[in-house]
C-alpha cells in the first residue's frame, strides 16, 4: 500500500490521549527518525496498545499515511532491557525528552538510534549513570550537527594546552581565554584534553562535561525548562541531576 511502512524498529518517546479513544504517540524510529503516529482505539480499556506502547520498550511498528501524522496499524513488542531503578528511569525520561523536544521531525539518524539502544542497555545494568548520560548527549549533539572539538579554540584556531584556561560558548565551542563573554570561563586545558580522549572517570572531567552539555542543551531549549530535570531535583537531589 502506498505510504505504508512495515516492521520499523522504534521506541516510544511520549504518548498522550487523542480525541476520545485514541493515543497520539511520538516515536523515535530507525529509518524515519522522530515522528508521530495515531494509535486508533489505543486509549480504550480493552486495547492492548496501552501496555505495548510504553517508553523504553523495543517495538516493530507498521503504519500508513501520506501526511506527517501517520496511523499505526500493527505493533509487535520485542525483548529489551528493563529500567528498574528509579535513577535509571529518570535518566531514560531525560534522554526521551531531549529527543522528543529537540530532534527535528523526519530526520533519520541511525547512529543516534544505535546510541539510544546502547544507552538504555547501560542504564539497565549500571549504577554509575553520569558517563552514560554524557556519552548520549555527545551522540545527540553530533547528530544535531553541533559537536565541537575539545582541543581547538574556534576564535583563534590554536590548540588547547594543558597549562592554560579556556571558555565555552554554545554557538562556537571552545574559545580562548581572551574571548568576549563565553558562557563558561576558566576551563582547565588539561581537563579539556582529557575529555577529548573520552575520559569521564575523574571528578574534574565529569563536572566540566556536565556543565558544557547543560549550557549547550539550555541554549537549544531557548529558555524552556526540561520537565525531566525536575524529577532529578525533586527525587534525587542536585548531585544526581542531568
Secondary structure elements and their pairing?
Layout: E1 4-18, E2 22-29, E3 33-39, H1 49-52, E4 59-64, E5 69-77, H2 86-102, H3 110-125, H4 129-143, E6 165-169, E7 173-175, E8 184-188, H5 189-196, H6 203-221, H7 227-235
Parallel strand pairs: 3-5
Antiparallel strand pairs: 1-2, 1-4, 2-3, 4-5, 6-7, 6-8
Helix pairs in contact: 2-3, 2-4, 2-7, 3-4, 4-6, 5-6
Describe the structure.
The structure is a single chain. The chain is α+β, with helices and mostly antiparallel strands. Among the domains are: 4-77, Nucleic acid-binding proteins (OB fold (Dihydrolipoamide Acetyltransferase, E2P)), CATH 2.40.50; 86-145 and 216-240, no CATH class. The chain contains seven helices and eight strands. The protein has helices at 49-52, 86-102, 110-125, 129-143, 189-196, 203-221, 227-235; strands at residues 4-18, 22-29, 33-39, 59-64, 69-77, 165-169, 173-175, 184-188. Strand 1 and strand 2 (22-29) form a beta hairpin. Helix 5 (189-196) crosses helix 6 (203-221). The longest helix is centred in the C-terminal third of the chain and has 19 residues, at 203-221. The relative contact order is 0.11. The mean pLDDT is 92.
